[in-house]
Design brief:
- The protein is an all-alpha fold.
- Among the domains are: 119 residues; 147 residues, no CATH class.
- The chain has 32 helices and 2 strands.
- Strands 1-2 form a two-stranded antiparallel ribbon.
- The longest helix is centred in the first third of the chain and has 57 residues.
């Protein structure tokens, strides 16, 4: 009975057990069958999609190709498929980069400059593929990207000259590859030499900054530290030159030259003292440093560049030295350029002496290096910057030597040298500068297209410097000639569509300046500006409008000129605030130009004087209350004081009160300078002036005072230059001289290839 009860009680549980297990077994069997079927299906789908993947890559639709892979389960063909996409991306990216190289530097107005376009997209897609393979490789190492895969991606990032932070991407990929190697202890994940080279090279191509340069040097040092265990990563001269180039282009105008010099010395030490001959600097190494010195603003850059040139000669003549790199034409030209850019007294003279040294050495048969048209162009650049009294005569002497070389067939006539000579006329105050510049200009036009003159063409830069030369004559006839040349330029561009003749804001500004300097008919300048506003979208800028304000402010044949200048200022503000012309945003110079017009406008009545003072006060208050346009400087306060002195009568009770208020505001802003005190003394009574000056006044006749006795914060922000002649705010402009150089260089290369 008990046994029967037990059996009766247990049977349901056993039945339940068997039923449950049977269901689980069936379910498991079904799951395995479905998994197998799904796997077969995935393989079949991926296999059937291989043609689709190939088609997508052929169409360069890499985004869809990557999405197709991301939605497919991994299998034996996955790595091969990703490699197909990666190879297509690399090929496409290299094609884009070759296209960029091909079209840069041929004088095109717009240079291909990818930032958030296809160039960046392809690079990011290549990095995405690496990340996908790294994720898949966490479970199956056969999916991991190889060192060659990483190198391909690093190479295209390394050649992406216009992409921000390209060096950071290269460095991150290098670190990922090292992480794989250290984790798996597999040499197939060792970085390649080319990977390091491209990661270092990109630091000087795009990421021109001290951080990028330091990264380049750190990567080279990393190579040195591991090359004992991995000889293929031994750094050599090519790597060192890229580090040197990164420092020279680091953007440190006051340090790049010195940094480059230090690194060059370390290369010499490595080669001579440490026996690493593969690190011995070559001519490229020295020229990189010379270029850093020439383009920087370091003290005695010309002297140091010339000293380095002598060192090249000494090392090359030393048979025991491992450094043999006699200076070439680039070396000499770069040193001359260092002197040409120098503000040191006698710099142009020294540049000419080096030119003569080159010429005499060549004529004596001591070297194959002789001056070229580029050498003469650089020396002319030096004389254009010179302030010697005979600078124009010296420049013409150099230009005569150049022309003789053209006649002897040493080189062709070219625009760069002719433009440089016209620029010398533009920078001089010679009474015949205008006529001589016009003669040279007409000579260029008359000989254009003739044999030996194919590199000499009139372009936008020629017109600009010629008009600038003419404007310095400050006559009505000169302004008419400037306008005539502008119309000739516009007509030539309209007929030929030659981009070299496309008018730009700089040439329009020069013409407006020419009208302003004539002091007559400023409405001609306004007509030009209106034409620019109507014809060239977004071309007008603050400098053009400032020139227009000056054209009215300097005129002698109109009334209410200060009010007209104030209207132009408000027009600029309206254009900027509306977004129609962003670059029309006024700056401190704009306000100072209006105040200058107020200060020197002649008033025919006391009422007119009051109106002028009112305009000056409105302009001054607008500047003080609009920090987005700038801050008052010393010149601002000087112009206001001159306005008070010229337009408020001596018995006007507002005269002294306004002058004192301006003085105190000037002091509180740290803009106090000697000219402020001079202008103040002319306005307020002597007794009141002596009281205000206190112990700083050392003499009343002649007026003398000691600025150092004022509180230091009163003069802290005052400019050291003459505040009566304010500088125009600089603007970023395309270097049209460089465009001319690019066209000439490209033409020469084409001729040599033929």
């Amino acid at each position: 009975m008990i046994l029967l009860l037990f059996v009766t009680i247990r049977i349901p549980r056993v039945q339940s057990f068997f039923v449950g297990n049977t269901q689980r077994i069936i379910a498991h069997s079904t799951e395995r069958r479905l998994f197998t079927e799904n796997n077969i299906l995935v393989r079949t789908n991926l296999s059937s999609s291989s043609s689709e993947l190939t088609s997508l890559c052929d169409r360069e639709d890499f985004h869809s190709a990557i999405k197709l892979m991301e939605h497919s389960l991994p299998n034996d063909d996955t790595k091969e498929c990703y490699d197909m996409i990666l190879n297509g991306l690399v090929k496409k990216q290299k094609t884009l980069q070759q296209h960029t190289i091909k079209h840069r530097g041929i004088g095109e107005r717009i240079i291909y400059n990818p930032s958030i376009n296809d160039d960046t997209i392809y690079l990011e897609q290549a990095s995405t593929i690496l990340n996908c393979l790294l994720d898949l490789g966490k479970n199956n190492s056969s999916f991991l990207p190889s060192a060659e895969d990483f190198n391909s991606v690093i190479e295209i990032w390394g050649n992406a000259a216009f992409v921000d932070n390209a060096s950071v991407h290269c460095h991150n990929h290098l670190k990922s590859l090292w992480s794989l190697h250290d984790r798996l202890q597999d040499d197939k994940f060792l970085p390649l030499y080319d990977s390091y080279y491209h990661a270092i090279r990109v630091c000087s191509m795009r990421d021109r900054g001290p951080a990028a340069a330091q990264l380049a040097e750190d990567l080279m040092n990393e190579m040195e530290s591991i090359c004992h265990d991995h000889p293929h990563l031994t750094p050599d001269r090519s790597v060192a030159n890229e580090v040197l180039n990164a420092w020279s282009k680091s953007g440190q105008k006051f340090r790049a030259g010195r940094k480059s010099e230090i690194f060059l010395e370390s290369m010499i030490k490595r080669s001579e003292d440490d026996g690493k001959e593969n690190m011995a600097p070559d001519i490229t190494s020295f020229n990189i440093v010379l270029n850093a010195l020439a383009n920087g603003r370091e003290k005695d850059a010309g002297v140091r560049a010339e000293s380095l040139l002598r060192k090249m000669m000494v090392l090359s003549n030393n048979d025991e030295s491992s450094v043999h790199c006699p200076p070439d034409e680039i070396s000499f030209n770069t040193v001359i350029n260092a002197w040409a850019r120098s503000s040191k007294k006698g710099a142009a003279e020294r540049a000419t002496e080096i030119l003569e040294h080159m010429r005499k050495r060549y004529e004596a048969g001591l070297t194959n290096v002789q001056p070229s048209w580029s050498t003469y162009t650089t020396v002319l650049k030096a004389w254009a910057r010179s302030r010697q009294k005979d600078s124009l005569d010296r420049a013409e002497s150099v230009f005569e030597q150049y022309q003789k070389g053209c006649e002897d067939g040493k080189w062709s006539h070219n625009s760069l040298t002719y433009n440089s000579m016209i620029n010398c006329y533009a920078k001089s105050n010679h009474p015949e500068a205008e006529n001589r510049a016009l003669d040279l200009f007409n000579k260029m036009k008359a000989n254009s297209g003739k044999e030996g003159w194919d590199l000499c063409f009139v372009d936008i830069y020629t017109y600009t410097i010629l008009i600038d030369t003419i404007s310095k004559q400050e006559s009505y006839d000169s302004s008419k000639l400037a306008i005539s040349l502008l119309e000739e330029l516009e007509d030539s561009f309209k007929k030929t569509k030659d981009e070299r003749l496309r008018p730009n804001v700089r040439v329009y500004t020069c013409v407006v300046n020419a009208v302003g300097r004539s002091h007559l008919c400023p409405n001609r300048a306004e007509e030009i500006v209106k034409r620019v506003e109507a014809k060239w979208e977004n071309m007008p800028d603050v400098v053009l409008y400032n020139a227009l304000i000056n054209a009215y402010g300097w005129s002698t044949d109109i009334t209410e000129r200060s009010l007209k200048c104030f209207e132009i200022l408000n027009h600029m503000i309206g254009l900027h605030q509306s977004g129609k012309v962003i670059d029309a945003k006024p700056d401190t110079v704009s306000f100072n130009s209006v105040l200058n017009a107020c200060a020197y406008e002649l008033a025919d009545s006391q009422i007119t004087s009051k109106e002028i003072v009112t305009t000056a006060v409105q302009t001054f208050e607008l500047l003080c209350n609009s920090p987005e346009y700038g801050k008052p400087d010393s010149s601002t306060y000087i112009q206001v004081l001159i306005t008070i002195n010229n337009h408020l009568a001596k018995d006007d009770e507002m005269r002294v009160a306004m002058a004192e208020a301006i003085f105190l505001k000037c002091a509180s802003n740290g803009q106090l300078c000697s000219l402020i005190i001079t202008k103040l003394e002319a306005i307020i009574p002597n007794e009141r002036f002596r009281k205000m000056m206190g112990s700083t006044l050392t003499s009343e006749s002649p007026l003398r005072f000691d600025l150092s006795k004022f509180p230091s914060e009163w003069t802290a922000n005052a400019s050291r230059r003459n505040p009566a002649t304010p500088l125009t705010k600089s603007r970023r402009q395309p270097n049209y001289f460089q465009v001319t150089k690019n066209i000439v260089s490209n033409t020469i290369k084409k001729r040599q290839s033929v």
